[in-house]
Every structure is written in C-alpha cells, then in structure tokens.
Protein 1
Amino acid sequence: MAEKYIMIHDILSEHRDRMINIKKYYPFFVLSETTFTQYKDGRYSNLDMGYITMATLRFLIHENSFQEREVTYEEYEDFLLELLHREFLVNEGPAEEHELCGYIFDKIKNDGKAFTFNYFDPEEKKKKTARVKLIDSRIVHGIVLYHVTTDGIEFYLDTKEIKDESNISVQQVLLEKMIRSENFAGGIEVVKRINNEVSKLSLQKKEVLDLLSYDIMAGAKASEEYMATVAKWFREESKLFEKNRALIDKAFAKANEQGMNTESGENAVLSKIHKLDTELKKTIIRHGELIRETIELQNVADEMIGRAKLRKLRPVFDFRNALEGAMKRDRIDDLSFLIAPMLMPRLNKTFNAECIDRMLEGKSDNGDYGEKVEKKVLDPDFVYEDAIEDKRISKNYGVLYGELLEQLWKHGKTTLSELIAIYEIKFGKDIYNNGDLYSFFVHLAQKDSYDLSKMSTKQDTFLEGIIMEQLSAQKKDRFGELAFNITFDESKVLTFGPNDEYSITDMNFVMVS
C-alpha cells in the first residue's frame, strides 16, 4: 500500500512539471504538421515546415546571442530566401517570394500570438493552459526587432542539433536568458547541464589517453581534435561566464534594494540566486580543472608520440620479417630493394696529398677570445605604454565624473545634453575627439544608481574603482554622502559635435535626497 501511495503521489505532484516541460515541444509539432497544399494551389507542397522552423531558431540564436543583436524582418527574409533557393530550389518572382516568406514567418510566430497548450492539473482538478512562444519581438525607434525566446533556445538545445563544441556556449546563452527573465530555478538546471558537458569532455580526455596507449596514429588525431574542441569553447566561454556573473551580481543588488529578504516568499528568491551563484562558481572551478587536464593531456601525448617516432627510427631491420612479408604478398621482387644496394659498384675514397701542404701552410689563430657580455641596467623610471594609457584614462574619468557631481550638487538634477554642453564650455570642442568621453558614458550606464558613501567602502565596477582613486580628499569630504539615479530616455537621441556626427541616447541624472 505504501508503494502504491508513493506512485499516486508522484503522478499527482509531477504531472504539472512534466506538462510545463513538454510545452516547449508543442509549437514545433504544430508547425511540422503545417502543409502548403492549400497555399497557392499546392505549388509549394514540397516545403518542410519542420526543417524551416529549426533553421530559423538556429539563425536567431546565432544573431541574438553570438552576434548580440536582434534582427529585422528584412534580414530574416534574406536568410529564408537563401534557404528556400538552396534546399527546395524555389525560383519565383520577387513579389511571389516576398509573399511566401511572409506566409512562412506568420506561421512560425503564430501571427504574434502564443501557442496554447491545454492540460489537466490533477492537484487543482481543473484544466489549465500553458502558453509558449518561439519568437518574440519589440519595437525600437519605430523598427520591429525579433529575437528567440528562452523556450525556443531550450527546445533547440534539447534536440541536440548543435555541434558538440558549441553545447556549452548555447547552454551559457540559455543561462543568460534565464537570469534576465529572473527564472533562477531554471538557471540552476542549466548550470547543472553545463557541468554534465564538462564531465563529458573529461571522459573524452580519458578515451583519448586509452587510444594513445594502443594506436598512436589514431590517438594523435583524436588528441588534436580534442584540443581544438576545448580551445574553441574556452574562447567563447570566458566572455559568457563574465557576463553571467555580472548579471547575477545585478540580481543580488536588485533583490536587496527591493527588500526581498523581509518576506518569506521573497527570501526564497534570494536563496535561489545564491544557489545559482554557488553552482556557477563550481562550474568555473571545474572549467579550470579541465584546462589543467587538457595541458597534461598535451604533454603526455607529445611524450608518447615522441617515443613512437624514436621506435620507428631505430637502426634495426628484420630480414626474416621482410622475407615472410614478401612471401605473404607473393611479391618476391620486393627483395630487390634489399639486394640492389649491395650490388652497387664499390667506391674507393682517396685523399689528395696536396691538401696536406695546404693544411701545413695555413695559419691558425691560437688566440682565446671570450664572449663580451654587456650588462644592461634597467631604468627604474621606465613606464610602459599601457600604464600611460591607464593613467590618462583614469585622470579623464575623474575630471568628467567630478563635473557631474558638481552639477548635481548645485542643481539637484541634470541631463546628458546639459552635461555635454558644460563639457564643451570647459574643455572646448576638442572634447568630442577624445574617445575617453564616450567610454566614460558606456561605463557610467552600467548601473542605474551611484552612492558615494557605499563606493568609499566597496567598488562594484571598474569605473567606481577609478573614481575613488581620482577624487581628491576635498571633493570626497564635500560630496561624500551624495547619491543619484540614472534613467534613460530612449525616445530622445542627442546629436553633437562640430558637424553633429555623434549621437547618443539621452540620460537623466537626479540626486537622491
């Protein structure tokens, strides 16, 4: 009875999670059943919507995540037309092909609506509806931009259509989507999948070592392929890890600002964020261990390949084995390669006596000259070029940030347009040709608020560390408690410079009392 009770409890409690997990597959099967028999009297009945859907998801994943940009419909249409021409030999007029692409895209994005998946919830005893989208859109400056959703990435990931060396990178992209959507529980599962991929690479390393032990040629090839795989994902992973760690730090800060540690439900959110951060740290450690193991594999492989080369070059020839091999192949003429060198004419080597006279008449230099060693003295005042650049950047950032604090102290608020005008008055129009101005705005926009009292004890960003070093003691005393918030006005784009060739989104700075 106890086992039956456990079974029934599992059915009831796990059913909802299973249905939610299944829902990401539902749009694909709905789309794969879409036929073109009713469209244009069946002229395009050979098109496969399932293949087109998978290709579309891969295209959007590449553009959104690896290229870090959203796509317009025109860019997607160019990709789709190339696919239709290449795979299905579609060759119609421009207007006809444009209409066909619009029809396909409307089907994939379901006319902008979510696909609905109905299921029965046995715990609540009622029907429920799960909604899922593969593609979503947003409007920026009047232009519609499209991107793949978290469900779309996870579905594509589960189908295992990506290359092995890209598995971890795509998992990292999915993790970024999870964190941005504040689905921290799903992010923990993604990190566990990343750990599984790392474990697979560790097992693959052992297989390569085993192969090297009995087949040096195949093992050398497998070792090169393994090294290339690890090198490729490591280049991609380093940037993605840094980005996801930064997102987790922002999630911590946001949770603390909103007071999520005061209520029991919100305390669970902080717990999930902390657990996700812990899992990601473990993953980074495992990646470091894998890199060390890979270096060890390279050393072991080089040593084994070197020993194999020496064995092949040893000066030993087995005439008995050569004879047996020729008899097995029924090619006794192969022995001619062994006999022919012995039948060559004998060459007698002589020494010309005149060489002795030249040797005796030659002058020898008996001087013993040592090598002149010049002792180089290091210049203690030498400064590297990158240190000079860092010093200049830090100084410029400190001046620009100090002017911003001055305006907030006087007026309580300011805008980016007002701030740029003040910079132009104080430093001249040459300020627009200084790249530090634009990089300063990029670093400044990383956070929505700044508090000098907190910055004095802990600096969260590269910019904050520079500011606390550059601000004078007088300014720290004056602005020590100043705090301000930053908001972005995307509807207003500033143009400035001698010929209005520079543009940037406007920003509002408001001092917090």
Note: The first strand starts at residue 115 and ends at 121.
Protein 2
Amino acid sequence: MGTSLIVLTLEATRRSVGPTLPLIALVFILFAIFGPYAPGALKHGGTSWLGLVNHLYMTNQGIYGIAIGVMAQYVFLFILFGVLATRIGLGQLFIDLAMVIAGRYSGGPAKVAIFSSAFMGTISGSSIANTVTTGALTIPAMKRVGYPAHFAGAVEATASTGGQITPPILGAAAFIMVEYLEIPLRDILAAALFPALLHYFGIFIMVHLEAKRLGLRGLNPDEMPKMGLVLKQHWLSIIPLIILVYMILSGRTPDYAAVYGIIACVVVGFLNPANRLTFPQLWDALAAGAKNTIAVGMAAACVGIIVGVVTLTGVGFRLGYVVVQTATDLGASFGSIWPFSYFAVPQWALFFSLILIAISCIIMGAGIPTTATYIILVAVAAPALAVLNVEPLVAHFFVFYYGVLADITPPVALAAYAAAGIAGSNPFKTGNTAFRLGIAKAQVPFVFVYSPSLLLVADGFTWYLFTITLIGAMLGIGFIGTAFSGYLLAPLNKLERWWIGLSSLFFIAPGVQTMLIGGVLVLPILLRQIAAKRAATT
C-alpha cells in the first residue's frame, strides 16, 4: 500500500504540475537508498526500501505530514474563496480601481499592472494565474502606449509574482508558516506587509524611470473607467474580503475566517444586481475551486516525500554545515584584503552564506508551485540559517522570498513565460527583464536578515530600528532601480550605473553610519544629474 501510494503520488503530481517536482522527489528517494555512496558531507548510512516506505507512509514526517494537512484544512478553502471572489466581481474591481488610481500618469498602464496585481495577490494563490488574469488587460495597454513587448510582459509577471508575498494568503504559504512556527496567522501577515510593499515600490521606481526615459504617456480619459460607475457596479464585492481580513485580525482561525468569507461571497453574488450569481455558475465555481486545488494538493503530497527523506537522512543539517563552512572560508579570504577588512570575518561569513542559500533557493524553486517550494526550502535550506543564529521567522521568510523569485528567474521563469505568451515577446528576454524588475525582491530579504525589525513582530523590534530600516531599504531599492534603469533625472553612463549599484549595497545593512557612507558615494552623481536636468530644461 505504501509503495502504491508513492507511485500514485508521483504520477498525479506529474499530471497536475509537470515533471520537475516528481523528478526531484525521485532523486531524493535514490539519495535515501544509496546514501553510503554519496559524496562528502552528504554521505549517510542509507535505508532499505521497507524502511523508507515505512517512514513516508506510516509517520507524520512523510506524505501525511504538515503540508498535506494544511492543504486539507486551510488552503482548499482559500482557493475556493479566491475563485468565488473573482466570480462576483472582486477581480474586476481591483483592475478598474488600479486604472483609476494610476492610469493617467506617465507610463500609466504599467503602473496599473503593479496596483492591480498587488490587489489580485491578496486573493490569488498562484503567480501564473495572477499573470494571465490581469495581464490580459494590462499587457496590451502597455504595448499601446509604447512599452516594448518584452518589458510589458516582464512588468506584469514581476508584479503578479509579488502577489505570492502579499497578505493575507501569501500563495497559501502563510498557513504552512503558522504550523511550522506555531505563531498566530496575524503575526505572519504583519511580518509580510512591509517587505511586500517594498517589492512593489521597487517595481514602481523602475517602471516610472523607464517611462520617463522613453517619454511614454498615460491613459487618455476615454480609456479609463469612471470611478463612480466602478463603485456602483462592484462595491458589494469587497465585503467578503473585508469580512475575511477582519476575522483573521480578530484572532479567528484561518479556516473559520475562510468559511465565512465563502458564505459572504455566495450571499453577495446572489444579491448583487450588476454581477448576479446563478446556481449553475455557483456550481461551476465550486468545481473550479476543487480543480484548482488538485495541483497544489498533489504538489504538497509529493513534497511530503522530499521532506520525509530530509528528516530520515538529516541532509538538511549536513547541507547547512557545508554552506556555513564554505561561506566562512570565503569570509576569511575577503576579510584579509583591504578595504574588505573593514568588516569582520563573521560578518563576511553571514553575507556569503546568505548569497549561497539564496542561489540554492532559486535553483530548487524553479518550476515548482509556491507552497511546495517553501516547504522544500524550509527542510533543506533553513537549517543553514539556523546554524548562523538567524531567528526562525526571519529564516522562513528569507527562503520563502527566494523560492518565489524563481518564478521570474530564467531559465525556468514560469510567470514570465506566461506573460510572454500574452505579450508576443521572446520568453527568455522577458524573463531576464522580469528578474531585473524584481531585483528589489532579491534585496529585501537581506535587509530583514540584518535588521529583523522590518518584519514588525520579530525579536528586538523597536520603532526607531524599523524607521531606519525602512528608510534605508527604500533608498537602497531606489538606487538599485536607478542603476538597472540607467536613468534618474537624465541618462546615466555605464560607470555611473555601476557606481550607484554598488553604493546601494550599503543600504542592505541599515544603520545611520552605513546610510551616510552610501549617501556620500552617490552624492556626486546626484549633483551631476541635477545639473544635467537644469541644462536640458534651459
């Protein structure tokens, strides 16, 4: 029975999410059995097939683990809520409000994509679903005002991927975090709020600078919806989301809040005259919610195999040791060179450990759903951060962010490729541009590792540290966006772009001293930009 379950799980996962995750699971199964022949620190005593099946099938550390339990208890309800909320008009309300808010400004459609994808991210559990939902409207609008096709697709993909780190769902990973960390859901959502806002801030900066560099227009009044009409038609559809968020913040369990959110969706759907729900449509929505759960549920079951092998062999702690030892060696080498000797060897060891873990998270997250990625990374990569005494909440968010980043990182940038299909652009070029636009998401985890106050509920939080961290992060993200865009007040040459990009790193470890150093480094370029702007205006 155990062997049959493993085979069926692998095949069902292949049919629902593709071959990548089952292949990874097979590699882990082989690793468990042939452990005595593994190289270096990965070597272990091995296990028999009977022992492996017993662990994966009969314990709560394998297929029937935390992941599948959370899927059954929480995630299905939230996916169903998202389907029903979209059906009663909440998705259209988000898109229309985004157009009203940002459509008229320079490069307006791109900013609409950012706002609409952020709004949709609050109810969507998939960056690809978010991309195709909002992208069908925003990508053609971006191309219409002059954005290149690959850039239009990249903006939508990057903004939609941000939906996976946006409360209250976090791509369903929030509920897994609750189980692993044993803290209330509202604390998880509070911790996720400002890092998500910084991600969108980074995209907004780069989109705005690109629009200024290309001289792009906003939407004309006749291309935008009217605020009064939007609210008249869809204001009722926001009620279920308000009920859901209120119940979560008031301390109710996630499943309790989701059930009442679903009931509210059904009631609003039948009462709303502008977008009335019929019984056949309700039946179809329920079926769609069940179908949408299959991919996530099977991915969770397959991830149970991987997590089971990790717990059986202890490979997570071995990898953590290898990463930390390698980073320490690199830190000792750098620490002996001036001017790098300004920082101590342990500081360099932490920095290089974060880089190595980030790279491994991106690689392991390629082509795998958000929740499955997070569970794998918690088992494999998070122990390395634990060795470095990084707080568990911070460690979980670090690996989660880099796992999500895989959706816009070539060569397996699934969200970017979905956007490229709508934009009619080169998929690889779209993926490269999406990664460039999402560089803020790669910078933010380093910020909250060095200053956990950004997560609001982390140990040692103070409003002073939070304020300094937030200001430093915004400046650093702004400067890195300037470097990648090649434009501030006027075009930047290649040397200036590199100089600003390297200077932005001083804002990763926020503090008054490092911020002053970064500010002094970029000041000459800022003064030259101001002079160039004045000369162009004159």
Note: DSSP finds 25 helices and no strands in the chain.
Protein 3
Amino acid sequence: MDLRFIRNFCIIAHVDHGKSTLADRILELTNTVAGRTMTDQYLDMMDLERERGITIKAQAVRMSYHCDDGQEYQLNLIDTPGHVDFSNEVSRSLRACDGVLLVVDASQGIQAQTLANVYAAVEHDLAIIPVINKIDLPAAQPEVVAQELEHTFGFQREEMLFISAKEGTGVPDLLRRVVERIPPPKGKAEGPLRALVFDAAYDPYKGVMAYVRLVDGAVNRTDRLRLMAAGTDAEALEVGIFKPQMTEVPGLFAGEVGYIATGLKSLGLVPVGDTLTRRGQPAERPLPGYKPLKPMVFAGLYPSDGESYQQLRDALEKLQLNDGALSFQPESSVALGFGFRCGFLGLLHMDIVQERLEREYGLDLLTTAPSVGYRALLTDDTEISVNNPSQMPPPQQVREILEPWLDVNVVTPSRFLGAMMELATGRRGMFKRMEYLQSGRRPRDEQASTSPSTDPRVVLEFQMPLAEVLLDFNDQVKSRSQGYASMDYAPVDYRASALTRLDIMVNNQTVDALSLILHRDKAQAQGRALVEKLKELIPRQLFEVPIQASMNGRIIARETIRAMRKNVLAKCYGGDVTRKRKLLEKQAEGKKRMKRIGQVEVPQEAFLALLKVER
C-alpha cells in the first residue's frame, strides 16, 4: 500500500483508563473481528491478562479503515500495558509508531503514569491525540480534565476528543482524527531492507518469530536475511500480519507492521531492537536500537523437587525471548539446592513471571525474598555488583556500598498531602518539588463536595532508594489516600548508603535464602520482626529450635521454638521418685542428641514472610 495511506499508532494511558476497551471498539468499527467472536479485552490474549484485568504484553493488529471519501487506510494499532513494571513494552511500541492516542479517565484525570507516557511520546517526537474517556460515568468531569490537560501539557481545547469506549460514543470521530493528525510513515519503499525488531516470540515449528516494523524496502517469503547487530543469518520461512491472529501474506512493505518467521531454533539470536536486512543487499547502517533494560529487582527461583532444574532453565530461556527485561543466571543455595537468580523490573513483573512458569510449563517453584542490585566499592578500589546477599563481601573489605535511587512521582488530592509527605520521608525520601494540577474540581452536589475527588490535585516529586519503594510503597500510597493517589518511578543513579547484611539462623545454621541487605538503622527492628514471624511459621520439632538474626556476626534478635513434649511419665504409676527422674533425664539426653543431628525444614511461607514484615 502507498505510504500515504498507512497509519501506525498505539494507545497509552495509566492503569484502568480504558485502553483495551477502546481497542475493542476500534476493532468492531473497522470490522476486523467478527461480532460472533468478539469478547471484552479481545487483544488481551493471555489467561493471566483476562483474570487480572490488566495488559501484560503489547499486542499489534492491522485494520482496514474506509474514510468518508471512500479512500481505504491501513491502520496498525499496538495496545500497550499501563503498569509501570511493563514500561519496556510501551517504549518498544513507541519506536514502532508515528503517533499515539493518550487516553485519560474523565473521572480520575491525569495520573502518575499519564505523565510518564506523555514524556516518553514527546521524547520519541510522536504526534499525540489527547482522548478523554469514560464520559458516561456519573462521576465524570470531562471539562475539568480538559483544563488539566491544557494546564499540564499545553494541549489546545480543540485537539481533545471526548469519548466513551464502553458505549462507543465518539469513537468514529476518533478514527477520523487518527487519519488526519497522525503522519504517514517515513521511509524508502525502493531502498535496501531495514526492519526494526520491536518484539519476538517462539514457535516450536517455525522458530523465532520476529515482530517487525519495516522502515525501508520490502521482505518476501524465502528472502535471505541478516540481523545487523547480532550478525545472525536467517531465512524468511513465513511473512505475515496480525489480524490480530497471525495471518500469512505474500510480503511486507515499507511502513507496515508484521512478523517474520526466521526458523532460528537457538533462543536469543534475534535480540529485540536489532535491524533485519537482506543478506545480498544489506543496508548501510542499522536503525537506532533500544536502550538495554536493567533489572531492578532480583529473586531466586528454585524447583521444589530439585529434579526440574533443566526444565526451569528451558522455560526461563523461552520467556526471556519475548521479555527483554527478564534476566537469569544459575546459583545454588545450601537450603534450596540449585536454581536461578532472576532479575525483574518490579514485583508485579516477578509475580507474573512466576505464575507463567507454573502455569505454562507445569513447574512447582520456591521463590526467595526479592532484593535490589547493589554495588560494593572495595578497599582495593575495585567495584563489584551485589545482586544476592550471599555475594556481599566481609565488612572489613568494603569501603562503601552504593544502592539504586529513583525519581518518584505521586499524584494525590491535596487533602492527603501530609500523609504522602510523611510516607516518603519515612522511607528515606528527599522532597524535590510540588505542583498543583488544577484549582479544584466542581462538586456536582453537596454530598459530592466531601469527596477527595473534588480536592485540587498535586504532583509530588521525591528521590528515594529503590529498596524503600520495592515492597509495599505503592500499597501504602493507595491505602493512605483511600485509593485516590497514584505513583510512577524511574531510575536515577547509585548513591552511597549505610547498608548492612542481615542473616537469619535456624537451629544455628544460616539460611542463605533468608538473608537481606538493608539500612543499618532498620536492621534491629527488621530482625526482631522477622524472627517473630518465622517463629509462627516454622513447625515445632521434638527439640528446641533457636531462630536468630545476626548483623556482622553479632546476634541482634532471637526467638525459640519450644520442643514438642511427650509425657514419658504417663505409664509410671508407682515406685520411687528416682525412677521418674531417670526417665526425664533419658528424654533430655535424647533431645540433645536429636538437636545435634536433626534438620529443620523451612517452609515456603517463611520466604514469603519477608514480603509481609512491616517496614
């Protein structure tokens, strides 16, 4: 198709602002999906996405749209996730598009992830169409949200569209605006092939499936291809488009979005962000790739039976192919055996990966407590990465420890300003700035005037250590603001902090999977809370089991699990008191011997306890 009649765009928004529902209405209006097969959140193909009601993987689809003048346009839509843990999916999608639909909830207004998405779209120099969604809700205040968009981003009032994706109101006007406002792709239809790999998947019969946006040239089936950065040679076994199911076509041309089956069986040979070109007529230079993603959260994954180690490795390799944020390396634990140290973008990302491994690959996994990646500067001026507490060198060898810091944005109604400030400063946060989004929302009636949604909303910016944001900061933001506040974060740099390693000993043996790296000021309280929690979770034995928390070799907290007692005097119905004493002494000697050779099995609930201990 002529480049002038192609439009490549994606939908970006905060969580639950209606991206997937809007995609459903667009699919219906363009007759891409038959009515009898249409379901809610159609592009959310994974069971996990439907169960949780969130988008995890970006999904592309090609649609045909006939304008009022009869001209046919090819629309390539990419539906993106909204959660901050999957921001890499959004950044990939933006590179494959020429414009975006910025969706904002008419009842909630601008949220933290809305800000992050707009800045990302501006950075990629994309056309932005502001869309105010959910105008059918009783609490909707579209005019107030329009003022927020004008004040915060400088959009003009006539640029904005007011729609209800659920009812379909305004969606036909939206499609006309896409054709008018989003520019056609730029590229050379006759030039050497250059195709950006923006995602990938693995098919057991066709090998690696590269999801591509063609910038220059064309690709046909049986073409001999080369990945310019990786240097990998491949053949186009199949070329196709997303309808949204994979549909084979004779070829793809400049400006189009589709997939290429490479036949490569070795995983990792098609890196996301690489450029595909033709082997006989290669392009002079590759397209700009993606910034390499750095995992921010690390946790150990171990097979519960010990025999599924290779199966776990294969499953991680397949997941890693289309999840560039997932990293893993082998490690072993005295308590848990052989497993992998995995890196994730956040706790939700970690939860999704674990559940996919258990569902899709039939694995039963044990997961250690998550931690962040630190850097240790040693006394000999060398620097090492510490992704696991067991990698922490002895204190006498460490000059200083650096931990990752974040820029954190919190959008909250003004009445919760004090609660948000207290929460952030209590987590070692440094206040940067504050800005009001608007002067306040007009209540619809007297009863609504008491709602936090009528308060002026404020953007708070902090800098905080990642370790303080990791576990429950977002939950605290929601609970302290009655659910009205939202947060977003982005990594900044590494800074020196007073950090230490906290070890947990069960029955005088260190359980390396329970070790933590944390701030020295919180070690005492954290150690005390953890041993008390473990005392409740570890089952009683026939001997006393001490649970201790130690810092730098010094015990800072202890609890004891009392032994189960057997009444050895039950059958002693008479005789001298010395007979009873002998029986009790014999029992005590047996318990001492059992304590020396006995093993205490730590249940999975104990590792999860680290997530639930109050910070």
Note: The first helix runs from residue 19 to 29.
